[in-house]
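To whoever is on call:

I kicked off a structure prediction for a single chain this morning and the downstream step that reads the tokens threw a length-mismatch warning. I double-checked the sequence; it's 260 residues and nothing unusual in it as far as I can see. Pasting both halves so you can look.
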Amino acid sequence: MTNKELVESLIYTKPEGLTSAVTHYCPGCTHGIAHRLLAEVIDEMGVREETIGIAPVGCAVFAYDYFNMDFAEAAHGRAPAMATGLKRVSPDKVVFTYQGDGDLASIGAGEILHAAGRGENITVIFINNAIYGMTGGQMAPTTLPGQRTTSTPLGRDVEMHGFPLRMCEILSQLDGAVYVVRRSLHNVANIRKAKKAIRQAFEVQRQGLGFSMVELLSSCPTNWGMSAAEALNWIEEHMLPAYPLGDYKVSPAISKHGGN
């Protein structure tokens, strides 16, 4: 094998944690990036056979078709409750939920709040694209002030619709939450940081320390009415000021893995 062939093999090898199924996601959607990061981390940790993922209701409803590991499907917003049950009856398993903003911060707001408050030893991957994706692009709890959606065609009016919910800021106040961070998927540098955060969140669970969540700012070109490139720029120009990246809760008990 030549050096060129070796490099290509290293770059393009599909993680064992992903199946060969073609995803249904729209062009430019960053769900695919999040999936790959998760699969890479799980492969690198060597825990694929011990991992159980929980798919949401939303754009990632078919995630169980794309991950080569055990998966369960939860009712809308109920992934934290299902994760709680699975982790408690099988504490040796690595359990994670994969949830969008409508699933986690709207119908599932009570579920995620109390799972974090109880300090459930689970990992949550929170995809925040500031809109309801699967059901037609309506306003979500994370929609920005002034942002146009199919249910707010003139833009989100905070006097009528209220302000966005910042879930990292909210959950980080709870004693049971030990690792709560926000990252983004809009460029290579931030994608690398996102992967490190996902790895750290799983390490927190393996250390038995409690609840961990990684929020990932993500794009939705179709419902935002933009090209893929424009959507990535929109994250940087509009979402980052509203949802600052950073570590919102990192318990001193955490043994860092690789840094963040």
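Update from on-call: the warning came from a stale cache, not from the record. Cleared it. Sanity check on the structure: The domain at 24-250 is CATH 3.40.50.970 (Rossmann fold).
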